[in-house]
Amino acid sequence: MVNKLDDLRLEIDEIDDSIVDLLAKRMKVSEKIAESKRENNLPILDRTREREKLMELSKKAEPEMEAYTRILYSLLFDMSKEHQHKQTKKQSLVYESFKTALENTVNEFPKNETIACQGIEGAYAQMASDKFFDVPCILYMKSFEGVFAAIENGLCKYGVLPLENSTAGSVNKIYDLMMKYNFHIVRCARIKIDHNLLVKEGTKLEDIKEIVSHEQAFLQCSEYMKKFKNIKITICENTAVAAKMVRESERNDLAALSSYTCAELYELDILASSVQNSENNYTKFICISKDLEIYPGADKTSLMMVIPNKPGALYKVLSRFFVLGINLIKLESRPIKDRDFEYMFYFDVDGSVYSESFNTLISELDDLSEEVRYLGSYMELI
What we know:
D-Maltodextrin-Binding Protein, domain 2; alpha/beta; ten-stranded mixed sheet; 13 helices; single chain; five-stranded mixed sheet; Chorismate Mutase Domain, subunit A
């Protein structure tokens, strides 16, 4: 039994040796094709040829091998395209803007800037702003879109926005606004979120008839909120606004889910502390700019792509990450407004902007999807 297994393994080894040799030969021919395409000013990607070839190979395969053949050759085509890109050294517009930003961005992130964030003094966005900049001059906006508009209209250079929470998930409104405005991420930071039940002095738990806060705060404190059976829940712009509402109200039956900082700022009592579902509750804030800036130490990258709504389209993109050995740390999709069943995919990838594999990926982005937007490469502050 053992001898038979050894014999079969030797047979597999011989086949693998042949495959390695054939792969090398195929790539040599691929180099010649790349040279021909360059001489004739042809694009690397030829979807029609790729589709016809895949169909032809699938027909040649035995029925039980058809699916495996498609998967294998889809990956092989991606490897060939990557190899051809290296030969032609033809760069995409995204790659050109990436390299320009990498060369022209100053070596040190600015310390003092005028920035925009949503909310008022005491908001978590203000805490994130203080983490990004030593002494920021903050313009407070009433909405997330106001932050984008402030940058778009030249009122400030940077904006700070929440992107996702470790408990409640992504802030979908931000993803939608990403599709509307042209901006870039230049930094991100994780901020510890600690929600407390704040009230006016003298208010007791049994007195409360209404609790105000941001919708994300209610999601993050959903378990605690179950104890309030007949309490009115009111959503407002953010947790700092909620605390201010309690402070300025003449009522003694109003409470807010907000931070310890807001308790001090608006002189409110903490009736219950750390009421979020998880102690490990963090929100990722991004610092955005209209200009593409890539500072030293950037090892995270965000991309947005429109991918055809057909079988295998997303797989082709993901296989490219696999071939290049690039770690995909987040994948999110959002429907595109005014387009039926079309989605924008949001990717976060991990890796130094100076690595060869990352540079290869950036140079190929135009060929990976119908539409691509390079949001930026940045460092994450923890």
